[in-house]
Amino acid sequence: MPDQPAPSIARIRVALDGPASSGKSSVGAAAARTLGLRFVDTGLIYRAMTAMALREGVALDDARALVPLAARVTLADDGTGRLTRVLLDGVDATADVHTEWVDAAVSAVSSVAEVRAALLERQRALAAEGGIVLAGRDIGTVVLPDADLKVFLDASVEERADRRIAERGLDPDGEDARLVREQLAARDYQDRNRAVAPLRAADDAVHIRTDGNAFQDTVDLVVDAIRAAAASLPATTGAAAR
Predict the structure, then answer these.
(1) pTM for the complete prediction?
(2) 9-230 has which fold?
């Protein structure tokens, strides 16, 4: 059963960043559930916009055409406080945003400065009330630079590729698995070297390396970090004071 959030935890804002397939979504959601917090994976918005762009033939670098797509994306609660369902024009399209085609294209869309600017206040609004774990690639550095806790999850590209291959039930020695490895390495390079909001750990982030960790071990590390940060919050800080 989830904890009943203590007053300090109930208003904490956690920025959870890391590269693709580092466990942000699964670990972040599990940690949030354990502590009775809300959870949002901001990457779903970029994935949803990418899925629409591919479906409608919008060029992935056409800022003028991409930005309006954001208004057609809604993140919906899955019934446990996690905004993990994706609605496009009101229709559930959660499965559509996790395809290999979106994997290969989402970095291009998320690199468009106008797209990131258009989504900035929307992401901050999600966290305004506190009691939330917000996951992404620039949460601690750009979206919530004043977050009460910043966590950066990381793992080697080899380990992250193996996780994605296993999740998709692919033959690890097959062609599809080879493409996953190549795409993930390319995504890392694009995310870390883009001109706008590149992927990097905030200077004051808690850095958690997950190579070789059992899933629950990583969840426990994040939960412990959140509890420690919440315990150190002064009574006059956090969402209640904002």
Answers:
(1) 0.85
(2) Rossmann fold (3.40.50)
